[in-house]
Amino acid sequence: xxxxxxxxxxxxxxxxxxxxxxxxxxxxxxxxxxxxxxxxxxxxxxxxxxxxxxxxxxxxxxxxxxxxxxxxxxxxxxxxxxxxxxxxxxxxxxxxxxxxxxxxxxxxxxxxxxxxxxxxxxxxxxxxxxxxxxxxxxxxxxxxxxxxxxxxxxxxxxxxxxxxxxxxxxxxxxxxxxxxxxxxxxxxxxxxxxxxxxxxxxxxxxxxxxxxxxxxxxxxxxxxxxxxxxxxxxxxxxxxxxxxxxxxxxxxxxxxxxxxxxxxxxxxxxxxxxxxxxxxxxxxxxxxxxxxxxxxxxxxxxxxxxxxxxxxxxxxxxxxxxxxxxxxxxxxxxxxxxxxxxxxxxxxxxxxxxxxxxxxxxxxxxxxxxxxxxxxxxxxxxxxxxxxxxxxxxxxxxxxxxxxxxxxxxxxxxxxxxxxxxxxxxxxxxxxxxxxxxxxxxxxxxxxxxxxxxxxxxxxxxxxxxxxxxxxxxxxxxxxxxxxxxxxxxxxxxxxxxxxxxxxxxxxxxxxxxxxxxxxxxxxxxxxxxxxxxxxxxxxxxxxxxxxxxxxxxxxxxxxxxxxxxxxxxxxxxxxxxxxxxxxxxxxxxxxxxxxxxxxxxxxxxxxxxxxxxxxxxxxxxxxxxxxxxxxxxxxxxxxxxxxxxxxxxxxxxxxxxxxxxxxxxxxxxxxxxxxxxxxxxxxxxxxxxxxxxxxxxxxxxxxxxxxxxxxxxxxxxxxxxxxxxxxxxxxxxx
Length: 735
Prior knowledge:
- It is built from 33 helices and 21 strands.
- The chain is α/β, with parallel strands linked by helices.
- The radius of gyration is 29 Å and the shape is globular.
- The model is unreliable at about 125-135 and about 655-670 (pLDDT under 50).
C-alpha cells in the first residue's frame, strides 16, 4: 500500500493531480474485470491515464502489452496526447479505435486465407465528378452501389434522407449481429430496404475485384475470424495482458463480442462507461450490456465515479435528479463540492422565429464567445442559427458541419420553381418539378413535351401540342400566369406563392403519404428557406445567399478553438464543456419526438440525450422553448417541465404529474416515515435479507460507506448507502 501511495504522491507533486477514493481504487485495482461507471465531469480520462501509468510504473507492465480502445479516432488521438503529457518519458500504449483493431484482425485473416478485398468507404464522388479510368471500381463505392441498387429495385432515385436511413439500417443490423432471416423485423421507412441489403451483400461477395468491405464489415469479419481461426485468436490474446475500453456505453454487440474474445484468457478488462450517456442505440450501441456486465464477468468489481468537478451545484443536483426518470440504469448519485453559481434559466418565446434573434442578442452581451455553446437535437436547427448569427456578425464554429441541407431535393425544387419565373421555355426545368406542380402533368405528357423544340412556352406547348385531359388545361394556364406574375418578386413572397398557389405544399403532403417522409421535416426546410429569404430583394440574391451559407458551413468547420460560439448537436457535444450552454428547440415533437413518446426505450434515450446537454454547462444553463411554430401551437418539452418541477417544486404539479416522473424520482424524494426502516450501517450485514420499498426482497452481497450491493430477483442493484439509511428505503423482511 505504501508503494502505491508513493506513486500517487509522486504524480501529485509532478502534476498537481489529486485522486479521490473512487479514482484511486480504479487506478489500483488492476487484476480481473472492472466496470468503472463515470458520471459527467468526474475526471474519467485522468483516471484512465493514471491507471495505465500505474500498470507501467508500479506493476512493470510493458506499454506494448496494454491495449486501450475508444469510440472514435479523435478520442484515441486525444488520449494518446494526454498520456504523453502526463508521462513524457514512457512509450505510449496501443491507443486505437475498435474499428482499427477489427481491421487489423480482418486483414490478418484474409492474408492467411488468401482472400482479396477492397475497402468501399471514403469520400463519396459527386454525381457530376469526372469518372476515373477504373470506372468499374469507382462504381463500387458504398453509397454509389446502394444508390444504384435502390434505383434498380424501386425505380426511384434515393434521397439524401433515405440514404442516411438506409446506411443506418445496415449498420444497425451488422452491429447487432442480426441474422438475414430477421432483417425484415428491423423497422425502416426506406422502401425495399431488406432487398437492397440482400443485393448489397451479394454484390460485395461476388465482385471481380475481391470481397468488398465497408466499415461495419470490418467488425463482423473481425469477430468471425477470431471465432473461425483458433491460431489467430491465440495470437491476439497473447499480444495484450491488459485491455481498457472507454465510452463503452456506445459500444455495439459485435464490438463487445470482439473484446470478450480478446480477454478470455486473463479477464483483465477495464470497461469505462456511463450508462446515463448512452446515445447511439439507433446504430447498434448496447447500453443493456453494461447493466448485465456481471452476468458476463461474475467476478467483476463495479466502481462509481460520481463526483462532478465540472458544473455548479445547481446544474449537478438538477441533472442528477432529472436522469433518475430512467428506471433502467445503475443507481448513481452524481454530486459536487462546487459552489452555487446561477439558477438554471428558462426562456419561453412567443414564436420559433424569435429563437435565433434572441440568441444573437444574448451573445452580443458576452465578452468571451469561446465559452458559449448552442445545443440542439437536429442538424436542421443550425441553418437558421447560422443565417441569423452571420447577419449579426457573430462568428461561430459548427461541430457538426453538414452541407446536406443545401443539396436537399426540397431546396432544389424551390430553386427550380424560381428558375421557371425567368423563363418558361425550358422543358428540362419543368421536368424536375412537374410532378409537384398543380397541373397534374403525367410522365408520358412530359416525355411528349421534351420532343418539342420550338422555343415557345412549355405551358403553351402542353396545351397546344400534347394530348391533355380537360381538367388539366385551366391549372396549366393558371400556372403560366402565376410564374409570369412571380417574375421580379422578392424571394420570401415567391416561396409563399410556390407553397400555396402553385400547390407545392400539397404535393409534399402526398409525397409524405406515398414515400413515408416526415411532413414536419419537409415543411421545416421550407420554413428555413423563408427565414433565409427574409429581407432579400431578388431571387438572384436568394440563390447567392444559399451558396454563401453553403460555403460558410465549411468555413465554420475550421474555427475550432477560436473565440467563437460553438453550434453542436447534443449527440456530438458529449465530452465537451462550456461556461454557458443554451439548449434550443425544446418543444414536444423535437425532444422528445413523436417516435420517442411511442417507445419506452426511445424515451429513455431521449432523456439521456437531454441529460448530456445539461451536463455540458459549467456555470450557466438556459433552456429555450417557444409557444408556436409555423402557425401551429408548440408545446413546451416535457423534459423542460420536469426540470422546472425540480428547480421550482410545485406540490400540485408533482402530485398530478405523469406517473413515470413520480416513480423514477422516488429515490430522491422524501419517503414517509417508516418505523421499521434500517437507519444504521451496522444493520447492513453481508448475507442478510432486506426489503426495499421498490425492488422487493433481496440479499446484501457487499456494503461500504458509499454503496450497498443487493441481489434482488430483478438483478443486482448498487444503491447509495447514505440515501437508503436517510430515507428509510430498507427494512428487515416481514416474517
